Amino acid sequence: MTSIRSVATGSHPAADEEQERMDPERAQGDAARTDAARTDTADDTAGEDTGGHADAGGQADAPESTPPLRLWGGRFAGGPAEALARLSVSVQFDWRLAPYDLLASRSHARVLHRAGLLDDAELTAMLGALDDLSDAVAHGRFRPTIEDEDVHTALERGLLERLGALGGKLRAGRSRNDQVATDLRLYLRDHARQVAARVTELSTALVGLAEQHVETPAPGMTHLQHAQPISFGHQLLAHVHAFARDTDRLRDWDRRASVSALGAGALAGSSLPLDPAGVAAELGFDRAFANSLDAVSDRDFAAEFLFIAALIGVHLSRLGEEIVLWTTREFGWVELDDAFATGSSIMPQKKNPDVAELARGKSGRLIGALTGLLTTLKGLPLAYDRDLQEDKEPVFDAVDTLLVVLPAVTGMVATMRVRRERLAAAAPDGFALATDVAEYLVRNGVAFREAHEAVGQLVAWCVAHDADMDEVSEDDLAVINPLLTADVRSVLSVRGALEARSAPGGTAPARVREQIEALGPVLDRDRAWAGS
């Protein structure tokens, strides 16, 4: 049985990296395609297995005597207008689906053989040609030309070049509609695991840093104002729990995405004796589609993946924002390693937290990908509509963005130096121990409402007299509020405040160590699922 994991082991680099794009002259009319989607392949394709020839400038083109291969031309008297061709071409971005399309084609060939539509010799030849084409794609010897409409057209051309008329038999019983739905699921299930692996690496780096700072006091903040002292390790672990939920979402998403659409055809299924369940199992899916119309229309899996990607982006943004603050002179809690900071073109003294800022900025891009796809989907009738061509670029961009940002943030976290003394000195600032005084009074029988009022009066007195709470005399305490006896000074200790927060999940060092221990199996599970 062939698994989607076999596609990502390195034999098909096109599945893991952003692919070379088509010639810019072919795509320049499509304003929706980004500049990144129009990188040149002219020089690179000269002399390659493209089925065309290279002109003096190295530009690969289809043979002049052969019209461009199309999968739908029989009903039409002529080819499409150039404006339509430029608008509809998608191979410049969907070529990265090639290894997944080839994987599905192997399974489809075996199904056709079991159905009696390919004899033994034809199956052997078909699988051999698909293997050869797959190797050529993986090593860049076969690439799309400027005449190929999409990844399916390009690969069929490659198969016809190798098999002649026999190559055309593979189209029996399938449509580009069920092909692309299956290809995209294969791609995303593969890359969801890659994203999960990178998220888990970041979580591991955060846990490693938290282990070093279980007992390092730090200012805990709400509204970005000093609130209560906490363990710095506790704060770092809060980010880990958020990222652990992200990987949990990816695993849960995979359960719903593990549905093969092959066999659904254009929308109504096939009259040929195909085996959708067998193909699904062979490709590593949990099940085949239950409704052919839904199978080719459904992009829930893409939208849901983009939601998870956007939420990962939000969590990265929050971590990035905190690190940006921590590295300022005003905070001064963290020093970034030179390898993960940049300078200024005019100000020699600057050391800028660009990784953290870019992580924060990329979240908008990820959120935009989600809202863009949802907007595309909101008005579509069943079944397949050409609007669905627009599902791929936001998905691919989200994958690319996360696979670039996550390792950079991991490196930044793993190498940054925490200034313990600075954190400890700031921990009691802003009357951060006021809640401890109020809770001391509660433990001595005072209603919390009265305790809150008394400590509020103490803070107001300290502000008016530019004093800290531990500097207030016994006489002044009695004047401020009779409930404030000299004994309240016993809780004015940062260390004591940390130890006192000993309820499960709290910031007491013992509880922080429990969190670290509990997260170990969680991260092990995530690594195992991601295959890392």
From TrEMBL:
GO terms for cellular component: cytosol. The keyword Signal does not apply. InterPro entries: Arg_succ_lyase_C, Argininosuccinate_lyase, Fumarase/histidase_N, Fumarate_lyase_CS, Fumarate_lyase_fam, Fumarate_lyase_N, L-Aspartase-like. It catalyses: 2-(N(omega)-L-arginino)succinate = fumarate + L-arginine. It is found in: Cytoplasm. Residues 21-41 have a biased composition (Basic and acidic residues). Residues 1-72 are annotated as: Disordered. Belongs to the lyase 1 family. Argininosuccinate lyase subfamily. This is Argininosuccinate lyase. It comes from Parafrankia soli.
